[in-house]
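Check out a protein:
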Amino acid sequence: MKKMTTKFSAITLSLLITCLMTACFMGPTPLTPEQQSAKIDASISNGGYSAVLNYDIESITETWQHDDQGIQITMMTPVVPGNYPLIIYLPGLGESSETGKLWREAWAKAGYSVFSVQPKSLGDALKGTPKVAPPKSSSWFSKDYDNSAAQKDVRNNDLRYLGHQYFSQDQLSKRINHVLWAYAQLKQRNQSRLGLFARADLSRLVIAGYDIGAQTTAAMIGETYDITLPSTADFKPLAAILLSPAVDMALGDITTRYQNISLPLLAVTGAEDDDPSAISTPFARTAIWEYSPPGDKCLLVLKKGSHQLLSGNNFSQNQDPNSNQDSSEATESNKQSHFTNQYGGGGSNGRSRNGSHGDNAGIGMMSRDKDRSKVNGNQDYAQVAAVYSVSSAFLDHICKKDNVARSWLSNKANVWLNKSATLKLK
């Protein structure tokens, strides 16, 4: 009996050690949607900005053909029929039209129709680049990943080569043509009152972009280049939002490049906003705000905001933050995410301006890279909340002439942002 007890104890101890080692490699258990929603609620309810209503939403994704190229589009709108201001959203390099979900959902639930456009060639641009597993991930031991220093160098070199190739001026012209064509198709469907497209109010148009989508957006609203870009005379947005603005210092004098940007503008960046393509630096990204003429120009700088956080994707805590995913990986990540539930209820039971909200939960938390592993996770939630509040207030101010939103931006935003971010206006 004594020998059996000793043997049992040894087995128990072995299992305990195995569990502890597994826990160390796996990292902390991801928070539930309810826990994450509560953290963001806590930030917004303490002085942040919320839209009056919080709509239930729906979306469709299709692939349209243009010049022998597939153009993936995702249309997201409130469920209730109506005319909602239109936001055209342009994703980053290696992303599908279904990415940027955190921002797109927040805007749609605040009463906007969001039309996301991404050529398949951009969505598939990073396929085939080596995969590097994040630290302390369950994928750490996977045969699909190679974490050697040499493999990481190969990946970084690939990303920089591809990035400079896709961010080129010639490629920019092609992207603008694709956006203008997709917008024309949207207008036709809107005029024919087809499905979700009928709910877009084309007279109140805003264009937004992240990463390479931000480069396209800036060019379409007036950034100058050495080459002649496609005419955007018939494309007349009221304002623009740039998430991680692309400022290529190699193109020349930045002090004159943005002088033609007269539209209201919200630029969002962060102290850690280094893109894997090495196109811009956190310091350079503010140039588009600094050198564009005054007039409803806003600059939100997140104190700990990374390039990956600004993508607005529902990545789990162990997702590799050092690179954009290709479209298939991003879609799978969204399917497996712990954080994909809708945020808030619908109609007037949704969140109000004072931060009260419905009972449904679920907001995705951005992953943290190895250089930020010691940063308090609350900082990530505060920064996601900052993007929600500032972008929603900016949109309501411009598209809905909301005086409460304007007053919040001018008088209350920086008090609320406190140590998580700063907002500059001119």
